[in-house]
Amino acid sequence: MRHIYRCPLRWADMDAYGHVNNVVFLRYLEEARIDFLFRPDKDFQQGSVVARHEIDYKRQLVHRHAPVDIELWVTEIRAASFTLAYEVKDGDQIYVRASTVIVPFDFEAQRPRRITAEEREFLAEFRDEEEAVAA
């Protein structure tokens, strides 16, 4: 299963070349990730941090009034980290493919922690085995 986030484009997201700036895509991915992880019914209240981002820019995205879709899914779940994959797209038109490694984190102790059973169960719902093998 994949999580879909509808991301609005802002006029300020464009750079001097008239397309969405590459750095802004990190903000889009963050918005999708927060929408996915911090939901009323499921969330990572104990905390997490980003350990790594990887982004492949496939096509320019220019400002328009319609939002862009960000599809998000889980490709890997380990004892103390998990990987999310994303596609920023319109239908079959892909602008960005990306992934983020996230580490659950205990902010009080200032150290990584293991994924809880509840978190693992939630993440497993969005695990895409075919995508994990292809990655």
Q: What does this 3D model show about the protein?
A:
By secondary structure, the chain is of the alpha+beta class. It has one domain (3-134): Thiol Ester Dehydrase, Chain A. Helix content is 23%, strand content 37%. It is built from three helices and six strands. The chain has helices at 22-37, 117-125, 129-134, and strands at residues 3-7, 48-57, 68-77, 82-90, 93-106, 111-112. Strands 1, 2, 3, 4, 5 and 6 form a six-stranded antiparallel β-sheet that branches. The chain is elongated and about 45 Å long. The mean pLDDT is 91. This is Thioesterase. One of its GO terms (molecular function) is fatty acyl-CoA hydrolase activity. It comes from Streptomyces brasiliensis.
Brief account:
This protein is of the alpha+beta class and about 140 residues long. Helix content is about 25%, strand content about 35%. Strands 1, 2, 3, 4, 5 and 6 form a 6-stranded antiparallel sheet that branches.
User: What is the CATH first-level class name?
Assistant: Alpha Beta
Element order: H for helix, E for strand = EHEEEEEHH
Radius of gyration: 15 Å
- CATH topology description: Thiol Ester Dehydrase, Chain A
Determine the fraction of residues in helical runs and give it as a percent range. 10-25%
- What is the CATH H-level superfamily? Hotdog Thioesterase
Uncertain regions spanning at least 5 consecutive residues: none
SS element count, helices:
3
How many extended strands?
6
Shape: elongated
Number of discrete domains: 1
Indicate the proportion of strand residues: 35-45%
Q: Tell me about the biggest sheet?
A: 6 strands, antiparallel
GO molecular function: fatty acyl-CoA hydrolase activity
Protein name: Thioesterase
Organism: Streptomyces brasiliensis
Pfam families: 4HBT_2
